[in-house]
Amino acid sequence: MSSKFLDLQKVPLEVKTKASNLQDDVTLLMPPIGLGCFASHDEEKKKVAKGWILSALKSGYRHLDTAWMYDTERLVGEAIRESGIDRREIFVTTKLPWHHPGYVLQSIDESLKAAQLDYFDLYLIHFPQAVRYPEGYGRPKNPDDPNAIEAIKSPTIQETWADMEKVLASGKARAIGVSNFSEKTLSELLQTAKVRPAVNQIELHPFLAQTKLLQFCKQNGIKVTAYTPTAYEKGRTNPVIVEIAKQYSVSPSQAVLAWHVKRGCAATPKSTNEARQRENLMLPDLSDEDMKRIDALDSNLRLCNFPNERGMIYGWTMEQLGWD
Ligand SMILES: NC(=O)c1ccc[n+]([C@@H]2O[C@H](COP(=O)([O-])OP(=O)(O)OC[C@H]3O[C@@H](n4cnc5c(N)ncnc54)[C@H](OP(=O)(O)O)[C@@H]3O)[C@@H](O)[C@H]2O)c1
C-alpha cells in the first residue's frame, strides 16, 4: 500500500467572506487541520492548556479552534505570542456562546480582550439556540447546568445574524459563520442574511457522516468543519478503520482525519500530547475504495452532543434543531 501522505499546505479550505464594507468578496485560506482548544471545564486541566497549545504551534499547527465557553481564549492568545509566529500566519476561530440581543458585539469584545488579539479570523454562533440569562446569574459557562440556561425562541437566528454582520463590518472578525446548524436553521438564517455564513462547524465523523448537510452547505458556498472528528474510542477501535489504518501504517485517528480532508472538510482534533498532535498532521492519501469503506460506517450516531433524558439538547428538541 502506498505510504503517500497528503500535503496539507496544498489543500487549505477557501473560506469565502466579505470585506468590512460587506460588499467586496474576500477569500481566506483555512488550514484543514486545526487544534481543538477545548480544555474541559476543570480548572486544573485548563492550567496546562497553554503548554499543549504552544506545542501544537511548534509542531506546525496554524489553525486554532477556541470559544468563549471554553475559557481558553486567553491561553490561545498567550501561546500565539510565546510561539513567536506572526499572528497573520495563524487562523484563529472563536465562538459566540448562546445568542441573545446585545451580547454579540459585547461577546466579541470580551473574546478579543481575553485573547489580547486585534481580530479573529472566524467568529461562529456556537449554537442555534437563543438563551435567556437569569437575572443576576451572569453568563453561563457550563451548558450542562439546567438552572443556568433557558432556551428561548426570541431573538431569532436572523436577528442574531444581523449582529454577526455588524461584527464583520467592524473588522473584529475576518469571517463569520455558525456551528451546530442544520439545513433547517441555516435556511432560516439565509432568508435574511446579507452575508452568507462562511463556515458551519458540526459534529462530523464516520458514524455521523452528515452527507446531506454537507451537500446543502456546498450548494450555498459554506465550508464545513468537523468537531469530535476522531470519533473518540469508537473511531479508534472500529475494525474497518483499524484495518484501513494498518494498510497505510498509520493510527486509526490519522485514517479518520484523512477521510475528513479528502471529503473537502476541515477538522479540529484536540490532543494534549505532542506526539499525537504531530501524528494528526500526517495524513495518508486514502484510496477511493477506502473512502467508501469509511463512508459505509455512517449510522447517524452522535457521540458529543446528544439529547438528554427529556429529548432536549440545551433546551431545544431535535426537531427544533433540525437534527435527524
Ligand atoms: N462547536 C461545537 O459545539 C464543538 C463541540 C465539541 C468540540 N468542538 C471542537 O472540536 C475539538 C475537538 O473535539 P473533541 O475533543 O470532542 O473530539 P476529538 O478531537 O475527536 O477527540 C479528542 C480526544 O481524542 C484523543 N486523540 C486525539 N488525537 C488522537 C490520536 N491521534 N490518537 C489517539 N487519540 C487521539 C485526545 O486525547 P489526547 O489529548 O490524550 O491525545 C482526546 O481524548 C474541541 O476541542 C473543540 O475545539 C466544538
Automatic annotation (TrEMBL):
SUPFAM superfamilies referenced in this protein's UniProt entry, alphabetically: NAD(P)-linked oxidoreductase
Residues bound to substrate: H126
Domain of life of the source: Eukaryota
Residue numbers marked as site, Lowers pKa of active site Tyr: K95
A single GO molecular function term of this UniProt record: oxidoreductase activity, acting on the CH-OH group of donors, NAD or NADP as acceptor
Domain NADP-dependent oxidoreductase: 33-298
UniProt xrefs under CDD domains: AKR_AKR1-5-like
Coiled coil segments of this chain: none
Matching PANTHER family: ALDO/KETO REDUCTASE
Protein name, as recorded: Reductase AKOR2
Species name: Coniophora puteana (strain RWD-64-598) (Brown rot fungus)
